[in-house]
Design goal:
Number of helices: 6
GO cellular component, one term: multivesicular body
Helix content: over 70%
InterPro entries: Snf7_fam (IPR005024)
Family: Belongs to the SNF7 family.
Radius of gyration: 37 Å
Order of helices and strands: HHHHHH
Keywords: Coiled coil
Shape: rod-shaped
GO biological process, one term: vesicle budding from membrane
Distance between the termini: 128 Å
Largest sheet: none
Amino acid sequence: MNRLFGAKSSAPKPTLNSAISNVDSRVESIDVKLASINVELTTYQTKLSKMRDGPGKTAIKQKALKVLQRRKLYESQRDQLQQQSWNMEQAGMMQDNLKNVMTTVDAMKVTNKSLKQQYGKIDIDKIERMQDEMADLMDIGNDIQDSISRSYEVPEDVDEAELDAELEALGEEVEFENMGTESTPSFMVDEVPQFIDEPPQAGDKVAAG
């Protein structure tokens, strides 16, 4: 029979906590990749700040733009995973709340049974209040379910003009950092005097004699 229908899987069913841990691990992995991409992007930007316009600089710029676009894709994926993790955490909180609600309901049932035994009848008013509370809890559960089941839009392709502008902004940051390492500011170069020792003139020797 197992050959026809397959053996029943004995693997443990995934839990909400394990699913959250799995997503968080993926987020950490993407963070590592983003750190590596940032280092690569900084290297390209440093090269661009030292190169003159030409085919070589254009080629480096194209590579930098591709790295920048890859970074945006990873950032988008990380944001989606973080949202998924948050949604599952909300589901876990709702599950805990529902467990507490069921515990309360069980306690109310025991109380109602005890009241029936003591007074020989059920208090209708208390039953109605319990039903009202259950209806309110169901409404809250439905609202939470609707909230966590919403879909999230995937961002559209990144515009190359936007990437170019961001790359240029990074270049300005690198140039600003390089300016801080210069020994003499550029606006003071022309004002620095240059002293040149010259041999005394012949007329000066005669006057001295």
